[in-house]
């Protein structure tokens, strides 16, 4: 259990210069999280103290087990992940290298945005519907107990409309906007250079943060 | 009439003669003679129907004329549409100054008044730095803080010592006639000429719109290097005057650097907090709120100057601190006032500085020496380029986004010198520096080169190198949501891999901020989500715009709209809720309506649609600065519920 189906977990993205030092650091962290087991389950993530305060905690943990992110063809959630899967997820947060060419950069960017897209699209149907979007906004604002649910809903609705006007342009009065597809999602993130922002430095070798 | 004119001319000339070496208009009070229609006891003069008393008003009159001239010159430039895009304003202003200086020189056969360094440092420089610090994108600044600090401190040190030593090498060559300039004098000269100038950087970078990252690196460097410039300048100046130099003095210099830098920042932060605290209680007298902002920031500057700490860093720190908290305490109108007044002051200051630089150039303060001047210029360029290159190689190891060669080139090329080194060179004591005029000439040549040549060519270079430009997009709620979502994802992943990244520290600071600082400094502490506040702001803008363009028949008389303006937040009554709901529903209809109007409606509707869009764009533009918030969420006190049922 836990061995991925297509066992070629080291993908093109990963092969881009993850140094052995960084792999060692991540491995140590993995062992800490899994309490020296070979695989991690969802419950293991409860042991990270700072993650508790994160409003979208559920989605982040979910993303680790999402089979679409683990590069398997199938759908749904994995029960547990091993170290290679862990590395695969971490590889989405690689910083860009200086020697990447245009095509690589573009692929890089798409991979990262796909990761984010999967976090929005919880029912795995390839589209972010209004309900899913409302879900996201509610979770984001969940840290604020006195904010009414209605406001979160209306904010989500407003954002969805903006998305509609960007992606579809003018709509007829009876047209219904189905949901944000991945192409639309790409369009919305066009101005923001995600490749430079979506990275985590794996430089620090000492694991500073403790687990319970 | 002729005797009156003669008297006027004589009075003016006399006033000029006494104000040699000072600002025109800064002449000592009392050079003017009191009007004499009363006459002496023995002469009886007839009653004068019309008198002219110039000396009485001379100082304010001349100051006003200078400022007026500067502003008229600015209008003149912008009349010709293409001119400001080719030539930065700073160049044109210096040219005007040169012209003026030439006229004064020609008319009176003596050197025109030179810019008084005190006036520059105490009055002209603070508004510019305040303006820059207040509107600085803090998040980007702190993300790049390491790099900025590295360039500012080590880079300036590198430049200063490099230029000083190589110039000393040149001076040793007896053919140039410079052998009397000692090593220490050269080092001092190197230290004052290596400082990148914030005024010049702002003036030039303003028009070329490079991406924010690059801009913040160059501009941040120009602000932070003030600390080290102050230290080096004072250090070498004292060394020049001391007989012997002991090792202890060098250590004192290093310690001085830390005190200057950290002391300046602490003063700024402290006064920023005091300002925020003061504005907490100003809700009854809104009219003087802007005054506090300006007074406290200026106070931080001159307090730092009093202790010979870095005034620029103090005022920057004060402005950045104030920005966060004061904005929430003051009314909307005060906020607008602060913004506009700040911009106006800094614009006037900048214009005056450049004009005076031009005026002060003309005159007899020069000594030309081909070797010294040309080698100074050469070394400035070489050492800057080398410095940026070497330092970047080192700092790239620690950065996640390495700086490319293009970036490095722009950073090196953007190292402009300006009024600060100009003033510093005038402050050199001539007793210790017999060759002061030579230094002045060299500094002027370097400044002119950087401002003119580099200033004019940087824009075509940026386009040629295809440097990434800043994208001025309008804020959208969805974008804010994405950004916030993304921040949390990144923080979460950092937590998972146990890494303390930038986000970790920022999170910790935000928690501390929410728990203690905001409670203390902000009057009605509502935990704010940037998403909600952006959304509210946009919706209010829509509603206002609709009301203004007359599309809403009845404007709610209840206090809801104006209360949002005022920043007062209180629970809405049901009728108010109803009103807002109505506005927003109608609003929604208008939005959809607008997107449909392109191809179906007549010209008239198009015009109004464009007008509404224009208002929207302008409003969004003007509020863009204030929407750069990264306030976090908090669980504390109740927040106003936004009514807004869309459908």
UniProtKB/TrEMBL annotation, chain A:
Q: Which GO terms describe its molecular function?
A: calcium ion binding; protein kinase inhibitor activity
An annotated GO cellular component of this protein is: nucleus
Q: Which domain of life is it from?
A: Eukaryota
Query: What transmembrane ranges does the database entry give?
Result: none
How does the record say this protein sits in the membrane? Lipid-anchor
Q: Does the keyword Membrane apply?
A: yes
Chain ranges of the EF-hand domain: 108-143
Keyword set, alphabetical order: Calcium, Cell membrane, Cell projection, Cytoplasm, Differentiation, Lipoprotein, Membrane, Metal-binding, Myristate, Nucleus, Protein kinase inhibitor
The primary location reported for this protein is other
Q: Name one GO biological process term.
A: cell differentiation
Cellular compartments annotated: Cell projection, Lamellipodium; Cell projection, Ruffle membrane; Cytoplasm; Membrane
Please give the InterPro entries that the UniProt record associates with this protein: CHP3, EF-hand-dom_pair, EF_Hand_1_Ca_BS, EF_hand_dom
The similarity comment for this entry is:
Belongs to the calcineurin regulatory subunit family. CHP subfamily.
| Entry protein name | Calcineurin B homologous protein 3
What organism does the UniProt record list as the source? Loxia curvirostra
TrEMBL record, chain B:
The yes or no answer to whether the keyword Cell membrane is present is: yes
Q: State which residue ranges cross the membrane.
A: 86-107, 119-136, 148-171, 183-208, 214-236, 248-278, 298-319, 371-398, 410-432, 438-462
Specify the Cation/H+ exchanger transmembrane domain's residue ranges: 67-463
Q: Which UniProt keywords apply?
A: Antiport, Cell membrane, Ion transport, Membrane, Signal, Sodium, Sodium transport, Transmembrane, Transmembrane helix, Transport
**Where is the secretion signal located?**
1-17
What's one GO BP annotation on this UniProt entry? sodium ion import across plasma membrane
Gene Ontology terms for molecular function: potassium:proton antiporter activity; sodium:proton antiporter activity
Where would I find the Sodium/hydrogen exchanger regulatory region domain in this sequence?
Answer: 554-639
Q: Which domain of life is it from?
A: Eukaryota
Instruction: Give GO cellular component annotations, separated by semicolons.
Output: apical plasma membrane
Q: How does this protein sit in the membrane? A: Multi-pass membrane protein
Q: Which PANTHER family match?
A: SODIUM/HYDROGEN EXCHANGER (PTHR10110), SODIUM_HYDROGEN EXCHANGER 2 (PTHR10110:SF89)
Protein family (similarity comment): Belongs to the monovalent cation:proton antiporter 1 (CPA1) transporter (TC 2.A.36) family.
Output this protein's name: Sodium/hydrogen exchanger
**Taxonomic source organism:** Loxia curvirostra
From the UniProt record, report the name of the gene that encodes this protein. Answer: Slc9a2_1
